[in-house]
Design goal:
Elongation Factor Tu (Ef-tu), domain 3, Aminopeptidase, eight-stranded mixed sheet, six-stranded antiparallel sheet, about 375 residues, alpha+beta
Length: about 375
């Protein structure tokens, strides 16, 4: 693993940690989006939002081709579905997750945060130790005396986050709950900050997008794809199929390691001209990177964007990540910094009249 060389200012990392500490369960993203809007204002830019709660900011000429850099703000979590007379809560997933037994959680209520723990019968009493329980067979224990006490504190539909504050694993690795995918939002905004600080005024118009509900419906990216005149979009998301952990087979997923640079994804849903320009920027800028092949629509917001309107040419940058959808997701700060460098370089090299569609290359021979 390479050393995490990066150019993040302390203010940027402060924002990243603040964002990671702000609950943003899919469908309940308002706290995270307020944090994003506040940061945009601190950069001297104007945040904008829409009916679904997407947030974005733009720099560059109004009449130039618009390029979107996108990350989704929502994290996986739970939602309260039923409260028993004994004071326990049964929940449903808001976005996917893995084994959840004994995880510490926070229920976000109108009266403030309520700590709890996810329970089930211990393995000592289980008839079989094989398999995992279904979500409704778990419960959340907040220490309520009974159902009346629980209902006085918690309401049906309250979102729940797994507790996992951001910490550094040595000097290189950042571990936190909800890295997926607030790290993508951070990269988009940090690229915008980098360009704005250097006085960027084109050739392209650059829009940093923080989108909602990727983990549940994908409506956020789809809505901005229809509403904004994007000529191209690059989604930034975590790429979890890393092969630097035990029992992960590169023959299935392709080789991918933390610290070797972000993944530039290539495949049927990725515009070849965007992949080509990102690769050129990486090579000419000597930016460490890895290439990942993906045959169909990707499990990212790139899929919602490239289906919008008559189609938006899309690229995808992956931040290699370990331990997807857990309270302990891990990324390498050097990889994060190199995503920012790739995005900024892409903007600098996008012509004002850019056309990244496949049709142009077909008709031009």
């Amino acid at each position: 693993m390479q050393q995490a060389e990066h150019g993040f200012a302390s203010q940027s990392l402060d924002f990243l940690f603040r964002l990671l500490e702000t609950p943003s369960v899919s469908g309940y993203e308002e706290p995270g989006q307020r944090c994003v809007a506040e940061h945009i204002r601190a950069l001297g830019l104007e945040p904008r939002s829409d009916v679904h709660g997407n947030v974005w900011a733009a720099i560059g000429p109004d009449d130039a081709a618009a390029v979107g850099f996108e990350g989704h703000i929502d994290q996986v979590g739970l939602v309260v579905r039923h409260i028993t007379d004994e004071g326990y809560m049964h929940c449903d997933f808001s976005g996917g997750s893995w084994e959840i037994y004994s995880r510490r959680v926070t229920v976000h209520t109108a009266g403030g945060p309520v700590p709890g723990v996810i329970g089930k019968q211990p393995l000592h009493y289980a008839e079989s130790r094989e398999g995992t329980k279904k979500i409704h067979e778990y419960w959340v224990d907040i220490g309520a005396r009974d159902g009346e006490d629980a209902r006085a504190k918690v309401a049906l539909g309250d979102p729940i986050t797994y507790d996992g504050p951001p910490v550094m694993l040595g000097p290189d690795l950042l571990m936190s709950c909800g890295v997926d995918n607030r790290i993508g939002v951070f990269c988009a905004l940090e690229a915008l900050r980098l360009l704005n600080d250097e006085g960027y005024d084109g050739p392209a118009r650059v829009i940093a997008l923080s989108c909602v509900q990727k983990e549940t419906s994908g409506v956020g990216a789809s809505a901005v794809g229809h509403a904004l005149p994007l000529r191209a979009a690059i989604a930034v998301d975590v790429w979890p199929f890393v092969t630097d952990v035990p029992e992960c087979d590169a023959r299935r997923f392709g080789a991918l390691k933390l610290g070797d640079g972000p993944s530039i994804v290539r495949g049927g849903a990725i515009a070849p001209s965007i992949f080509s320009l990102l690769s050129t920027v990486a090579k000419e800028g000597e930016i460490p990177h890895q290439v990942q092949a993906w045959t169909g629509p990707t499990p990212t917001d790139a899929s919602g964007l490239y289906r919008s309107r008559e189609g938006i040419p899309c690229g995808l940058l992956g931040v290699p990540e370990r331990y997807l959808h857990t309270p302990s997701e891990v990324v390498h700060l050097g990889d994060v910094w190199n995503v920012v460098r790739l995005l900024a370089g892409f903007a600098r090299n996008t012509p004002a009249d850019a056309d990244f569609g496949r049709g142009r290359s077909i008709l031009s021979g």
